[in-house]
Amino acid sequence: GELAGALRDEGKRAESVVVDLANESSVVAACAQVLGEHGTPWALVNNAGLQDRQAFLECSADDWDRMHNVNARGAFLMTREIARAMVAAGEGGRVVNIISAALRGSIVKGLAAYAGSKGALQGLSQASAFELAEHGITVNTVLPGGVATPGAINATGPAPEGPATRPVPLGLCEPRDIAAAVLFFASPAASRITNQAVAVDGGFSIS
Questions:
Q1: Would you name the residues annotated as active-site residues?
Q2: Cross-strand pairs, 54
Q3: What is the pLDDT of residues 81-108, one digit of tens each?
Q4: Residue (of 72, 47, 46) closest to 151 by Cα position
């Protein structure tokens, strides 16, 4: 709500809807509210996620489930609800899932549950891209490297230790760098692109 208010103060159009991604009823109700007030959206970006760290040998089933309920199950529910509306509208659409460069080696200790949930989202991306292609709906993924977001800065758990802490050629990413990749996948320029992934990670792979 605070961010939407700040955008409105700048003369932009923005609204917020409260949703608990771990609760199916909340997701269904929030999507119905958006659809009722604004019609079928052109694009869905599954960006919300938890990223707290737990040492692998100390990670509990509750830790694992909490991470998956938001990062993977929540994205599944959002995609299902919005894609149903997109299919009914018959005008195509875009889904962009935010995964993680951790799946390509940019990892630190404590990410077992997090990386597992993002791996599940990667699998969902492929399966949904296949089933939604016939409806003109594309599904693509962005894999961010290190980004100085409040969630990353305030993440709990052991101190980061591993390959993701090394300097990368192009430096630490900013949120707008990730947004640029999302915007491309949502644009007309990407109308023939689906089931693809782009890492926005400052050049981690060549570091």
A1: 114
A2: 111
A3: 999 999 999 999 999 999 999 999 999 9
A4: 47
